[in-house]
Write a structure and sequence with these properties.
Keywords: ATP-binding, Nucleotide-binding, Transport
Shape: globular
InterPro entries: AAA+_ATPase, ABC_transporter-like_ATP-bd, ABC_transporter_ATP-bind, P-loop_NTPase
Distance between the termini: 34 Å
CATH superfamily of one domain: P-loop containing nucleotide triphosphate hydrolases
Strand content: 25-35%
Organism: Bradyrhizobium aeschynomenes
GO molecular function: ATP binding
Structural class: alpha/beta
Order of helices and strands: EEEHEEHHHEHEHEEH
Helix content: 25-40%
CATH architecture of one domain: 3-Layer(aba) Sandwich
Number of strands: 9
Number of helices: 7
Pfam family, one: ABC_tran
CATH topology of one domain: Rossmann fold
Bound molecules: adenosine-5'-triphosphate
């Protein structure tokens, strides 16, 4: 199973009728079991790229090929839960066939057990993100897209959720693509890191991390970040 991405160009027409190119050249491939992490400056076109990969936007030049029948789950920056449904109902609506033991395992990893009957309006952002992640994993996807899952959380909460995401990703052989602004998250969670230029987004560097995710020590993480800092790249 393999995801192949080749976006040669993507433009929007702005309100004044001008075409604005948002993506100029992004090409990469990911295998089953791999986590790709996309890092790029604000507004460079990352969410646009994710929408193309998810099949939500067919208006671009290039080609994206996903394995036939691949099941997709996507976690957006805002959790997008149904406000009038409980946590458990939100998940069961998306994944009606999920087995109780699988659901219990996901709730266990994400520490959501006590919140099954709560409603989205009662949840903090961190908890709502966990519910959105639980829903994505309950679907048992072949291809998982995570758009900045750790943004706007305090450091301690983000570190905990990062561990939980790592545990869930390791529990299932799928293709994962994650967007982040954080090099730390990128080198802790990723197997391959794709560094994008400012708009229009171009793939500047594709870096493969050789140390397996589960064996990466803090010293490895620091060394990898130092390697990346030497590249011609800036997130700002
Ligand atoms: N539907 C649209 N119509 C016109 N322009 C758009 C549309 N969607 C996005 N854009 C523009 O395309 C550019 C890229 O937006 P996008 O949301 O993909 O960037 P991003 O890298 O995800 O940003 P951030 O890091 O801030 O989340 C921005 O300049 C944005 O204003």
């Amino acid at each position: 199973m393999r995801l192949e991405v080749e976006i040669r160009s993507k433009s929007y027409t702005s309100a004044n009728g001008k075409r604005q190119e948002v993506i100029s050249d992004i090409a990469f491939a990911l295998q089953r079991g791999e986590v790709g992490v996309v890092v790029g400056p604000s507004g460079c076109g990352k969410s646009t790229m994710l929408r193309i990969l998810a099949g939500l936007d067919p208006d671009y030049q290039g080609r994206v090929s996903q394995p036939a029948g691949a099941r997709l789950a996507m976690v957006f920056q805002e959790p997008r839960l149904l406000p009038w449904r409980s946590v458990e109902e939100n998940i069961r609506l998306a994944a009606p066939d999920v087995a109780e033991d699988r659901l219990a395992a996901i709730f266990g990893v994400l520490e959501l057990g006590a919140h099954r009957t709560h409603f989205p309006g009662e949840l903090s952002l961190g908890l709502a993100r966990r519910v959105a992640l639980a829903r994505a994993f309950a679907v048992e996807p072949d291809f998982l897209i995570l758009d900045e899952p750790l943004a706007s959380l305090d450091d301690a909460l983000a570190a905990r959720l990062r561990e939980e995401i790592a545990t869930l990703v390791a529990s299932r052989p799928m293709i994962t693509l994650l967007v982040t602004h954080s090099m730390d998250d990128a080198v802790r969670l990723g197997d391959r890191i794709f560094l994008l230029s400012s708009r229009p987004a171009r793939l500047l560097h594709a870096v493969t991390i050789d140390v397996p995710r589960a064996q990466r020590s803090n010293a490895d993480v620091a060394a990898l970040k130092a390697d990346l800092a030497r590249l011609d790249f800036s997130v700002s």
